[in-house]
Amino acid sequence: MHLKNHKKFKEGLLKMKKLWSKILVGGLVLFLMAGCSQTQNSSSPNTNDKQTQSEKLSVYTSFYPMYDFAAKIGGDKITPVNMVPAGMEPHDWEPSAADITGLEKADVFVYNGAGMEHWVEDVLESLQNKALIAVEASKDITLREGHHKHDHEDEHEDEGKEHEEEEEHGHEGAEYDPHTWLSPLNAKKQMETIKDAFVQADPDNKDYYEANYVKYAADLDGLDKEFKDTLAPLPKKDIIVSHEAFGYLCGAYGLNQIGIEGLAPDSEPDPARMAEVIEFAKEHEVKVIFFEELVSPKVAETIAKATGAKTAVLSPIEGLSDEQQAAGDDYLAVMRQNLEALKAALQ
Fold it and tell me: Is the pTM of the predicted complex or chain greater than 0.90?
């Protein structure tokens, strides 16, 4: 009897184990099903984000002003890429293989034109991305004639032939001055050209791009008025700058730029040119010699020391420094900094 009861007891335990196993397995399945459901629900926003990201225009830009203008017009409907890294001078920059790969996948490519990007024509011809919309932002702007050389440079033509290839990559001898964006009203035209390209690439968001353009066009009109109201009453009109990047700005506001060098920012002036600039500074009582953040101030400092002048930054906004980026500066902010620098120099 004892053995029989013990057998029944063991059989009961076995049934209980099987029952608990079924309960545990069933519970585990339910848990996993609930987990899968939660995982799917929590991943939905990420999936949507990816879909939203893929719906944005991929926009590559040749250097900072084009990037800033594109970002302002495109807002959250585009993914903008500035091809030139922060702190790098763009005149002699050339795209890498990674940049070309990016352009092959891009929807829109925005560049200034007017000879600023010497590499653009060859790169565009090499691309397989035939759907890419390439936008020359300066195409509707009346261009200023380029600087060729100072009079005293005629004597050194033969000596300079060995530098022809280097000069082709800068702007010496360029047909036109490419620094179009330094006039706020030119910048407004460039933004309009960029806006039109975005509408072409993404017509569903036309109203969005149009609204952004209207907003920033008004900001640029306001900036233009600030420059006129501030500079017109000032007694002095001559500025000495590192390179002749400020022709459009000076033309818009009645100023006269004297470039230590021509349209290329990184060339060294010869002694004859240095003497000319020093003489001009003394004769016209120029009290500030301007230099740029992305170029060595050495030459400007030498002239300032010889004339008793000070040095200050006047930015061609060809790129932002790391410090400017960290401070949240943009085209409008740096142009206002330029205005304050000009006001101090011309009073």
Answer: no
